[in-house]
Amino acid sequence: MYLDDLNPPQREAVEYGDGPLLILAGAGSGKTRVITHRLAHLVERGVRPWRILAVTFTNKAAAEMRERTTHLVGAEEARKLWIGTFHATCARLLRLTPEAAGLTRDFNIYDDDDQRKLVGGIMKELNFSGHLTPRAALSRIDQAKNEGITASEFSADDYLGDMVARIYVEYQRRLRAANAVDFGDLLLEVLRLTDDPEVGPQLRARFDHVLVDEFQDTNRVQFELVRRLAARGNLAVVGDDDQSIYSWRGADVKNIVDFERHHPGCRTIKLEQNYRSTQLILDAANAVIARNVYRKKKRLFTEHGAGEPIVYRLCPDERQEAADVVRAILTLVEDEGRQLGDVAILYRMNAQSRILEEALRAEGLPYAIYGSTRFFDRAEIKDVLAWLRVIANPADEISLLRIVNVPPRGIGDSTIDKVTLLARARGSSLWDAMRAAAGGAGTVPSRTRLNRPLPQSAPAQRGNDERSSNLSLFGAEHDWPSPSPSPSPSPSPDEEPTVDPGDGGAIALGSGPKKKLSAFVQLVDDLRAKREAKLSELVEEVLHRSTLVEALTAQGTAEAEDRLANLEELANSIADFEREALDPAEAGLTAYLERISLVSSTDVEGGGVSMMTVHAAKGLEFPVVFITGLEDGTFPLVREEEDRAAETQQLEEERRLAYVAITRARERLILTGAEHRRLFRQGNDDPFERRPSRYLADIPDHCIVRTGTRRVAPDARGYARIEPRGDGRYVEREDHGDHDETWSERTRARRAGASAPSAATGIRVDYEPSEDAADGFRVGQSVQHAKFGVGRVKTVSGSGASLKLVVDFPGQGAMTIVARFLQPL
DNA sequence: GTTTCCCGCTTTTTT
DNA sequence: AGCGGGAAAC
Predict the structure, then answer these.
(1) Which of A304, A333, A516, A635 is the most buried if burial means most Cβ atoms within 10 Å?
(2) A742 touches strand B (CB under 7 A)
(3) What sign for the dihedral angle of Cα A220, A225, A226, A231?
(4) Distance CA A651 to C1' B13 in A
(5) Which CA distances in Å does A499 have to A112, A431, A506?
(6) Which pLDDT tens digit goes with each residue over A43-64?
């Protein structure tokens, strides 16, 4: 059967029985195949599928693993397997016994935006603003969480660290008060649960076999977590130190290097034969990664033929780069019969995707972007989601604050400030305070009260003894009590309210604001009453009763139209979600919110060109791969301010990233870069000028054909461009000129209504590399200049980086053009 | 008290 | 290009 198409080491990895197993799998060595076959093998051997856990890092990798496993064992069995990202898996586990972590089943998951807002608010209240940015504080908190350091354990020797420590404690307290977790908590809480006297034993006994993909990217918490979830000792990890690209998230290559030491009796299997790429692509990848010092020496081999050479193309700017990529795709489709679905465009930063997207759209080519400025990050979408989150969990303060005046309903900052004060004074949630301030009659037994304020000293978290002890823990997940209002288990010291909740007390609202607030509270209550209704109907209600749709319709601007279309798309996606859900219980509000919190991509069906960051591409492969933005400063992306020691390490990681990118390609690899790139503000010298990526120099000449536009300078204004042929055609070039104009000047000019300056000052020439022509220029060659028309080269002098052309333009005399080549191609 | 407009800052990479 | 903060306009 299917074991036949495995090579001996692969086969051993698949069939290896119980106990720890380390699979060192080079890029393209059939790693996913080994994992999926191993999963299938375990199932066939009689291991119950729901007792097998397979963990990945990205949703895309998880989806692929599930799909391929489905082919092997059938949909029914595959569905029972636990396959997912670390975070999705932990969210799922946490929902089984949320009380053990001080949460309710409807807990919300805060994304980084929510996190930042929360930290920002805390810093303001603690008067820490100005000393450090919320972003910086959050980054240290996240870092701590990656290392498993809780708020109470956090300490730092610098004075900023002391601030962070206080912020961290308060942040954690507020998160729990909001019945919310952040990404780090998902892992940390589950890790903590494995030690829990009640839940822990069952959690640790839950899985018979655990498999971890991309183990080189695990951080400390993930490493520990995996060990505990694989308490039976049947832990198989797969990884490759050359593909470690998540050190910024706390990943530690030591986890894989020391795996054998931590797991006595571990069997180690190496997979070194590459089945993915052609020899030339592999040569290039090997050459690039070989320059890293901190790595285990290894060399992949393949039995594939040399294949097509890699192509590098240097383009004048990012706009032209995008156009060239699209043109190359069209050529591949027309001349080689490639499918669009075979093609992936990779880039270092999401910011690069927009222009590529525009170029694809201009040609009408279908595409799917994975990650990027996510659909769910758009303001109007986040508004709707915030509504839904409040409906699911009104304790969610961040979401509540977001929607309270969206669309504008006359509840401004001052009203909110007062209600916030009231909430703090009463020690209640903001939502309860709103209800009180609105004059709503008394105490609705709201489940939000369950979120007891944690004791000021955070260590209490551990000995969490408030947990109701009669919870049937594992195994009872399916008949979990429905989220109907349950009496608050919280022993929250029903402290004397400093403010009389009924009458607003010391903090008085005027009658106007009070009325408005009351209408809002009523609205949320009405919507909450429907939270068990069909999701799509609930969303319809939210869209209209919140007047989100009406407000946008009233605006009538093109932008509002866009936003409405997005809302429509959201409604469609929700309908899809409902339809796809196999189990109606999985189609509810909470399930939906969880999914969109953890899934970054819109996961459009294939058929189009795939676009994603290199990070997102990890674990995937494509017949045709474009790697764009190959310039120093873009890829590798280096930040100036970093100290030198860190820079070396960063550059090594960037190199691994390049290695990952190159090894995604099966048959064709096309590299592109731009001489000028408009990307925020970079250094202060010439912000737009780039040098080709240093990795290009590492790729041996036999692997690669270097082509591209060459820059000729200076012309009257801007630069002229020379386009190499190859297909016998000239290509029109337009110079956008004025590269020294600053970004803000340009923005201002555009806002003032001025059109962007664009000077057409290009020249076109025949470019045919040959022995006798200096850099491809020959006397007698014809040249076309945008302003002066067609001319003829009279003399060529100089060579290498700089040469001088005298061009005769009939009727206008000769003109000297100095060609300066910044970098040999 | 609320809304709106304008300025300045920001972005690596993912869950 | 998008967002938050601050100041001026409603």
Answers:
(1) A635
(2) no
(3) positive
(4) 13
(5) 34, 15, 6
(6) 999 999 999 999 998 887 888 8
